[in-house]
Amino acid sequence: MNTGGQQGNNDRMSWWRKARFGMFIHWGLYAVPAGVWQGRHIEGIGEWIMNWARIPVAEYERFARQFNPVQYNAAEWVQLAKDAGMKYLVITAKHHDGFAMFNSPSSDYDITDATPYGRDPMVDLVAECRKAGIVPCFYYSQTLDWHDPDGAGNTWDYPDEDAKDFEAYLERKVIPQLTELLTQYGPIGLIWFDCPGKISREQSQRLRDLVISLQPDCLVSGRIGNDIGDYGSLRDNEHPEGPIQGFWETPCTLNDTWGYKTYDENWKSEDDLINLLVNCASKGVNYLLNVGPTAEGVIPEPSIERLRKVGTWLQHNGEAIYGSEASPYPFDFEWGKMTQRENVLYLHVTKRQCVSVRLTGLRNQVRSARILGPGQTPVECTERHDAESDRHCIELTLPAEASDRYVTVVALELDGHPDVSPSA
Ligand code: H79
Predict the structure, then answer these.
(1) Which of 320, 335, 357 is the last residue of a domain?
(2) Measured between alpha carbons, how far is 91 from 378 in angstroms, rounded to an integer?
């Protein structure tokens, strides 16, 4: 786990905290081999194929000549994020393979110079994000770079890690490219640094200072290293199990890879995805969910289907997710999870068999109880208070006909801010 230092303050973090749900996009040259090298299925995550298969730089570079995403349509990708109910979008500008998926004037190893496509996909993507009200953000691998002789990690072409001049790599490649990313596209929500590895505190600080000098409101992910990010990242695909303080996000996959692989069909169900999103929100954690488009520029259909279903659920239940805060209780419930906002508690009934929901330890009076969704169906609510033991207990009976097929959310409007004593 990477605490990231939690440098963010409430003003800086405001849009990000409200957003709660974002789209990650891993798109790069690794989508060309798509998990297959020399006729063999290469194990591991797709964007790591250069590393796992020990593909020499000179051979990996050839994928650029095959990268021609003629079906890429930025408006469709952004519409999908919107349909899914996602509020920000983080795309790989440069992953560990070192290839810039944007127009990088400081490098020839970029999409405009090295591919037949010859254009900068980020221009349209950022423009479409702005039209849709989605915050555009860039992923940038600052330490690992398997293409640069002085970047970290490529021990098959450049075996002597100690001989590498990491400082020279930062100055020659990282600083110019970050400058490009933060000056060519207008306001960017955040830079998603990853895998800090050997970067020193002074070097991390220099990158943070650079980002903020170019765009004062731009956030920096915790994986910039040395605890100077604005927020923390859980481990890849890690989900919070209990209360967690501060600003957190968890980066997650829809199947078992980030970059596209032709044969990874291990898709999570929409039911799982909605439950994972609800769990994140109940702990105050942002859920950053990945798609891995093909080298033609197409997001795989199973990803689209699932994201649309999550989006439909959010259309009815988004009130309980966006702008919500973590549950005031330090534990989950036998019937599900909770979020809160102002004077409202949201009870996410994830166990479909629970038609009767019990809540103890809530000292407020309930003004109203309704199921989120088209009918706003009222829910019968009995409140009991035992004066002697000062125990509070609320019981709700869910009308079967108003239940959501995934997670039913009950909004309990209270007479004031939730006043909870979990043990009572
Ligand atoms: O971009 C995605 C991943 O490629 C990236 N983070 C997400 C968001 C990531 N980079 N590194 N890691 C995650 C950790 C990877 C560790 C491993 Fe390995 C890669 C385990 C197996 C392959 C490196 C090589 C460590 C052990 C062998």
Answers:
(1) 320
(2) 42
Has residue 420 been placed in a domain?
no
**Which residues are near ligand 1 (CB < 6 Å)?**
44-45, 47-48, 194-195, 236, 251, 258
* Pocket perturbation via mutation, ligand 1, pick of 2, 47, 48 by most ligand atoms within 8 A of CB: 48
Please choose, from the candidates 160, 122, 135, 145, the residue with its C-alpha nearest in 3D space to the C-alpha of residue 194: 145
pLDDT, tens digit, 9 for 90 and up, residues 153-204: 999 999 999 999 999 999 999 999 999 999 999 999 999 999 999 999 999 9
| pLDDT confidence band for 108 (50 / 70 / 90) | very high
Following CA atoms 376, 381, 385, 390 in sequence, which dihedral angle do they give, to the nearest 10 degrees?
-50
Q: Does residue 422 register a pLDDT over 90?
A: no
Contact (Cβ atoms closer than 8 angstroms) between residue 215 and residue 182: yes
Q: Which domain holds residue 339?
A: 327-414
Would 3 be classed as within a structural domain? Answer: no
* CA 54 to ligand 1 centroid distance, Å: 15
Q: Which residue has the tokens 């095959």?
A: 66
Confirm whether 2 is domain-assigned.
no
Mean pLDDT of 372-376: 93
From 320, 350, 383, the end of a domain falls on 320
Q: pLDDT per residue over 21-40, tens digit each? A: 999 999 999 999 999 999 99
The mean predicted confidence, pLDDT, of the chain is 96
Pocket test for ligand 1, best of 27, 45, 145 (most atoms within 8 A of CB): 45
Residue 419 domain flag: no
- Beta strand 380-386 with 391-397: parallel, antiparallel or unpaired? antiparallel
